[in-house]
From TrEMBL, chains A, B, C, D:
InterPro entries in the record: Malonyl_CoA_deC (IPR038917), Malonyl_CoA_deC_C (IPR007956), Malonyl_CoA_deC_C_sf (IPR042303), MCD_N (IPR035372), MCD_N_sf (IPR038351)
Residue ranges occupied by any Malonyl-CoA decarboxylase N-terminal domain in the UniProt entry: 79-159
GO biological process, one term: fatty acid biosynthetic process
Disordered: annotated segments: 413-453
Pfam families given in the database record: MCD (PF05292), MCD_N (PF17408)
GO molecular function: malonyl-CoA decarboxylase activity
Protein name per the record: Decarboxylase
Domain Malonyl-CoA decarboxylase C-terminal: 162-312, 320-381
UniProt cross-references to PANTHER family, sorted A to Z: MALONYL-COA DECARBOXYLASE, MITOCHONDRIAL, PTHR28641
Amino acid sequence: MANATALGDLLSTLLDRKLFPRRGGREGHLPDLCRKLLAETSEASGLQLAASILETYRQLPAEGRIAFYRFLNDDLDIDANEVARLASIYAEDPCPENFRNLSRASEPKRQDLFRRLNQAPGATAELVAMRADLLSQLAHAPELGRTDHDLVHLLRSWFNRGFLVLRQITWDTPASILERIIAYEAVHEIHTWDDLRRRLQPADRRCFAFFHPAMPDDPLIFVEVALTDGVPGSIQGVLSDNRTALPEEAVNTAVFYSISNCQAGLAGISFGNSLIKQVVRDLSRDLPGLKKFVTLSPIPGLSRWLAAEGLEAAQNDPTQLRRMAALYLLDAKKKDGRPLDPVARFHLANGATVHQIHSEADVSDKGIALSGGAMVNYLYDLSKIAQNSEAFGQKNEIAATTALRALARQAAKNRNAISGRPKVHRETDRPSPDVPDAGWDEEAAPPAAQDAS
Amino acid sequence: MANATALGDLLSTLLDRKLFPRRGGREGHLPDLCRKLLAETSEASGLQLAASILETYRQLPAEGRIAFYRFLNDDLDIDANEVARLASIYAEDPCPENFRNLSRASEPKRQDLFRRLNQAPGATAELVAMRADLLSQLAHAPELGRTDHDLVHLLRSWFNRGFLVLRQITWDTPASILERIIAYEAVHEIHTWDDLRRRLQPADRRCFAFFHPAMPDDPLIFVEVALTDGVPGSIQGVLSDNRTALPEEAVNTAVFYSISNCQAGLAGISFGNSLIKQVVRDLSRDLPGLKKFVTLSPIPGLSRWLAAEGLEAAQNDPTQLRRMAALYLLDAKKKDGRPLDPVARFHLANGATVHQIHSEADVSDKGIALSGGAMVNYLYDLSKIAQNSEAFGQKNEIAATTALRALARQAAKNRNAISGRPKVHRETDRPSPDVPDAGWDEEAAPPAAQDAS
Amino acid sequence: MANATALGDLLSTLLDRKLFPRRGGREGHLPDLCRKLLAETSEASGLQLAASILETYRQLPAEGRIAFYRFLNDDLDIDANEVARLASIYAEDPCPENFRNLSRASEPKRQDLFRRLNQAPGATAELVAMRADLLSQLAHAPELGRTDHDLVHLLRSWFNRGFLVLRQITWDTPASILERIIAYEAVHEIHTWDDLRRRLQPADRRCFAFFHPAMPDDPLIFVEVALTDGVPGSIQGVLSDNRTALPEEAVNTAVFYSISNCQAGLAGISFGNSLIKQVVRDLSRDLPGLKKFVTLSPIPGLSRWLAAEGLEAAQNDPTQLRRMAALYLLDAKKKDGRPLDPVARFHLANGATVHQIHSEADVSDKGIALSGGAMVNYLYDLSKIAQNSEAFGQKNEIAATTALRALARQAAKNRNAISGRPKVHRETDRPSPDVPDAGWDEEAAPPAAQDAS
Amino acid sequence: MANATALGDLLSTLLDRKLFPRRGGREGHLPDLCRKLLAETSEASGLQLAASILETYRQLPAEGRIAFYRFLNDDLDIDANEVARLASIYAEDPCPENFRNLSRASEPKRQDLFRRLNQAPGATAELVAMRADLLSQLAHAPELGRTDHDLVHLLRSWFNRGFLVLRQITWDTPASILERIIAYEAVHEIHTWDDLRRRLQPADRRCFAFFHPAMPDDPLIFVEVALTDGVPGSIQGVLSDNRTALPEEAVNTAVFYSISNCQAGLAGISFGNSLIKQVVRDLSRDLPGLKKFVTLSPIPGLSRWLAAEGLEAAQNDPTQLRRMAALYLLDAKKKDGRPLDPVARFHLANGATVHQIHSEADVSDKGIALSGGAMVNYLYDLSKIAQNSEAFGQKNEIAATTALRALARQAAKNRNAISGRPKVHRETDRPSPDVPDAGWDEEAAPPAAQDAS
């Protein structure tokens, strides 16, 4: 068995050398560079080494990257037996020395490596990109979940709310940031720069984003807001290209009509809740006339659920569609008792109330395909957010208006008339994380991200 | 025994309630608040709770703080038996699920608490201040070293080089920052604003500092630089208040004449090496005429060592003082084989060379008291830094000029003539961390900090 | 006759009241408001009054504006007899008191009015717009040239070079400024935001603009620069959308391929010379490898001149076209002895040398129409600029390379072969100001502007 | 006589050459350089020439400067006979051509010179300094008033309110600006940086300044504001160094306790009115609890007037002093009917009301010397400013409270009892411009400045 291991080591080393080609002899083998960095005591030399490693990594082909992840996952893991031993010692004598020994042993070396890599200029964005890449491998190599756990642990610490900066995005924002807004918008596509301008420049529009100081020109998440007179029931109305801006004195409602996460590599680290509440606070202060804060949100799982329930016919009748949407949002649940709809989960966890449902509210191809054109307003009532959030978190209780509950009851009565076949309550088995308005499909928020939430 | 424990718990709870008084009934007992924060799932509510905890902490009297640290240290520690159990399971089956379970169990809850506290506005500076306070307790309560280990672990991650920003400090810098420079200067005191101006405004003076984005108006470390023609041998000459600024074309040397760490709460997290090398790089780029980068550094342990060696008489003769200083820097060692002088350890670990020794170089009271007025230039020769640093790190080899080695040899010959009593090589038993020019006394860099270096 | 005048006054007053309708009774008749402003002693009330006047002016229909200009031109003119009287007094006794009296009398009240209007927020941009509008009236109402003279006198003083700020335009510049760059580009149209990005973002492209602090988001003039290896001979090559950026070490030439004036209201106030020289200075400092500074300029009058000379046939033969272009640039003159080509006049007055001519250099419809596709490089050789500029200014001497002079000589020999009809040297009678690469047609730089140059 | 003139010319030329020494042959004689600059057509060469002239001027000794001013005053004056001739022509035929000819002839060449000089970097500040120097010569050489008239005319145009920027001065302001605030404070001296900090850092203190974009680090005027609960009656109370800052909710009054003009070279160009009104507007918007805006102003002429009136005895009795101060402010007039007190003239012209008088309000040596320690509050009541300002401007009517008028009446009754000798109403013959709180003595605002106001 010792021999088998030795052979395995040899083969693995040879494979490694092929996938991590030496670059000009100067920089050496990637695992060697990493080990050298871990041993480096001079900050400045470490910084140079970190830059070399990231440069080498960037130029790796796909299979080289997987080999690198395996190196991180296996070679830079903890020694579990040593951890067990040190934990027993500490249990006997909890002195600081024993604690430090255990503490060091129980942190995989790859965490220290990530921290050292981060010293290089621009490294934070590269580590975020590395995680996006790693996430895309998890379906095929689930064992890499160990490395992902460590990386996301570190990223969550670095992207702590205390380090984020809220900035308003306007037509005066640098074009290099605006083109990212165009690219990242995931709910209602921004087709052109004129389209973007219509969402930023009018006096009754706002956009806010969180940034991290180490990635100052790349937003983490952003929300688009329309200031309106009353709660709107159509996204095409909100985004119309021949509207007149509403004067400030006529504004009484702020509509969050699009929230997009920007960084696939930060999946599972949630910024949306903080963003919405900060924006509610800032807008309240600046516009005393604002009385209501609502979303105009997609119902991404509605069509799929209607099909699963044999209720497709409801899509042909606006009234029935609104009723079935209410039923879906209030009654369709996952096995864990939480709502089936990922956007609903996001806003309800934040403490919002299901407020109003509109048919013919998103008549784009995408809107029709996902929800038969229906959309929903979630209401952020500051006086109820805390208790709603708690009731939902502890008892899965959904806050909804009386009218909306009535709609759902009517739907429950009518469903047999529509479907013809008996209800079979089945949870779809598709993975579905909690998300803001965008990113509710698997690509954008892969299964592994759920662990982190 | 169960009863005794129960009684102890009761007493401890009562004590806690006395030291953490409820503030208006609304915010509750500090440990309760912390437990509530650890359980909070809403980011926004967590943020408010974090702010309350920090506010409550700030108002605690000294004994209340110690009780709070004990709560962190004991109640929010790991369950070592559980860690041992999970480590054994993981050793058997290293699947991601088992890894995550072990990983969570082996991180003390106080780490999560610190991260959650950090979400509140301004929290980072408060956590740094909390560590400064905690450090001051370690001498009397060394068991708190466990909590210190966790806090410094997190701070080192947050104050990663990749997040630091180098800014030049000039006479155009906001006064609110400049007054901190005055307060933090720890090597050559800045007596007045005019004194400060003389170090910033002339064309042949520079000052650079590292900042963290979460503490944008509070420097972490700064270095003061004089641009000179040749290597200066007197700090009073450098700081003279009636000099004429040297024209840029006459400049060939950059002298780092003062480096000060600013944050006691970040003791053990080293920024000096990065700072010096970044400044060397920036100055080289901006001033192509620069040929030499040296320090003009104190020799803080010299007088004490001369006294211990019975060589006080050397202080009366400049030539002898220079020789003995050379001997001290090159030969006086700690038990671990590294130099006795903390400033020497700092610059030698960075890869500098002991370059030149000057007597009558700091004739201030402090300079006379510490080193009989002697100072030393450490040379930063970019072509030798890496190999010097490695030789020092691995073999405790000290880089020094030939002339300086000759001085030390002469000293070795002369010492009996001076002292009269036989040499007893003793290491002083005073703790002495590696430090840049300032902070070489125990107050500024307490013992616990050494663990972190 | 007195009666006729009185009647005229009456009619004129009635007409005035119709064209300057009272706004709500509060603000009154525009001339009255202006007179009130001229009499106002409180700065703050004056500021409010100024804002009202500009607001009223903005809402005037076209004919109302003309009436307003006539009011400025006639009612706020000087009293010439009084000026003559005071001048005679001053000639007798040049004491300060007499000087002040004459000085005040010889400045039309409208100048004081313009200065007072300028106190309102945003007024500077509005006065620039007012002049643009006024300029457009001059062809039909040349007597308004008096008011134009005063307004441009003031604008030239306010837009003094000492107040202008040079800013680089990059892809990080606010979109609100970039969209103006797109709109103002007058030489080689910017079709889309991607097109713009290709001129700003690559490492071998630059763009610089002058701004005035009172119009911080509206450029006055900008120049687009390509950094190249050698002098390029085709604008389509420079603007190609599938090039690879040149690495900095390969760059030896800076090509000014487009210079556009942005403000029609500042016609006759020249910024191009300062802009080019400032940019040459800044680029030289930042890119020591730069050896040559050239333009790639249109020859806007070439086709028209070829037609007038009966030399259209030259457009069919690249070689002939290059020769005729050389002849045109060196020999075709206005009555005042200066070159017929307005772009040539601009660069030659700046001290540039006619360097090289390229056929098939601008194959866009516009390029073909104006010059049969030919373009020219003007060379900015810093060591010759001053003497070139002086020789051109005093003796109309044109600096050109030997090769270019040879081309022109060949053209002179060949022209009869091409045209068939005898040369009739005629200056086109079209007005033609000196301009940088853009704005050489009458619309952009109306006749009145010439007075100001 | 022709010979005498020729001789004079010769002598004057020789004198000139002595006073304007050639600098290394390169730059030539200052008048020659100026004439060359006036003839220069290239902007860029002009810019260089302008820089040379200013450099040469800076190095002139005092007598050289006077010679330079004489050159500006005499050689670059208008040709009055030519102006008279062109004015007559224009009176006959007011065509634009004739207008332009007259317009050019009636502007002295020195104005064009000043504009051209201003193109050099930093020139604006140098021209402001030049005027300060010129003003200091006017007492001995009043004929230079012609040049001063032109220079102030231009500066007034350049320092137009529309170009000024209001910035708050805080403890975060660059030290280089703060040290100017310390130096420029002219009402209540700032003794140390701590003293300054007490006026900037507390939450109930504000400071605002106007800046010009061409002098971005040098304020033009600034005002210091205390936010208080009620109207304070003692400047020492306001500036006390052991106060507790008032919480925002307790603030109802903004006290302008010091207004200082900074630039002697801008004497006669008034910024104070605009500054106060802009600050009132901004504070009203930011602090809705503010109900009252008052000054706490010196009464600089009171002691002098009491002495002139034989009423010195009033200084020994607080009650009498308050009465006499009321009498002085309301009744003591200049020949032109305006108040004798220069600070009163400033605030009354702005539309303020004389509100309250306090004895023992400024017990500093200066306060006692100038006004026996009395101070006055002027009230800025936004609803009355316009009518007060108009009434004062047109009819010299002084707005005052009923109580204050009653005080003045009592004083009128009592004065004989105090003085013993009959009232002789005499205006002091000392020149006395209208000023804000500072600069009311002759040195700070010399006679010539009055012409400009």
